[in-house]
Amino acid sequence: MINISDLTRRGFLNIGAAAGASLLLPKTGLISSARAAAPLPAVAEEDAVIAWGYVGPTSDEGWTYAHDLGRQAVAAAFPKAKTLFVENVPYSADASRIFRQFAAEGANMIIANSNYGDFIYDVAKRTPDVAFYECDGRNPLDNLGTYYVAHWYPSYIAGVAAGLMSASGKLGYVASFPVPSVYSGTNAFLMGARSVKPEATLQAIVINSWFDPQAAAQAGTALIDNGADVLFGIMDEAAYLQVAEQRGAKAVMWNTDIRRYGPQAYISSIVVDFNAWYVEQVRRRIAGEWTPTEDILPIGSGVDRDAWGETVPAETAAQADAIRDKIMGGWSPFEGEIKDANGNVKVAAGHRMTEVELYNWDWSIEGVTGL
User: Fold this and answer.
1) What are the tens digits of pLDDT across the range 327-351?
2) Which of 99, 142, 276, 318 is 20 to 30 A off residue 71, Cα-Cα?
3) What residue numbers bound the domain in which 330 lies?
4) Do residue 200 and residue 69 come from a single domain?
5) Closest CA to 137 of 120, 158, 160, 161
């Protein structure tokens, strides 16, 4: 059932559907589906315990910081509820131990702000009376939902600005791991750049971490040494922005506005906002309305581009923002024909990639190297 007034008020869509069903909403970029599970029982606000497992530190000014702002929004909206969090949850059996401990402490909802795979899946399966959410997850249960952001749209928009501002046409990307969020980011960014500079290319360097300032700085330095004059990435800190500032290059960042670390280099950032979405999930859990959903938060609500940096020319900003307006109106740049890095047609002419395909993008387009 779709309640249009609720959708408008909350700034994102929550669509009930049969198990496994999905819906593409071109005007927002959001896809949402719900499993045919019975809602978990209501919880009195004073008995509610909501716990977060964070992949990084809350002080990163990036991904984890943005999620913790969402936790703080929940605490403000439900002052009688208790919120818990653990930082730097490792990708190991220790993650399972932390999630089990949350449940032992009475958590009614447990949220992981990264993909923990079996480490959260196995715990959720053993505690069916607890609601779970896994960011960037892909293996839902009747009590385990998933959520993410449609970052490929603002990445394309930022790519347009990068293409207009790059003199060399060589772009660099500091990558965490070769995972779909990286492929969709690099591909979207280069596609945006190539829409205004067809000869543009992008080199990626994988550092096997979400938060490693030293490795990110080294990767940014190497990319500039190889000719890149605009950097992009998916890091949870500002290291490669600082490198770009020192070397006279430009940079597009992720998560939050961190321009103060490189005001001359800063083009924009892919900014995320989970506040409203977190508050709504907790409201549903307390009210006894919660069933797991698989949500991708749309551009303009859960994710967007940051305000342009001070050195971005007005005409560049205007041209990129015109593309944003088209996307907000329902246009998508992700329509075939699109070839992979080996020249094979992966998206046929006339086919518009769905949000599910964009979310699960696991190959590089022509012009991307290093992944």
Assistant:
1) 999 999 999 999 999 999 999 999 9
2) 142
3) 152-271+304-369
4) no
5) 120
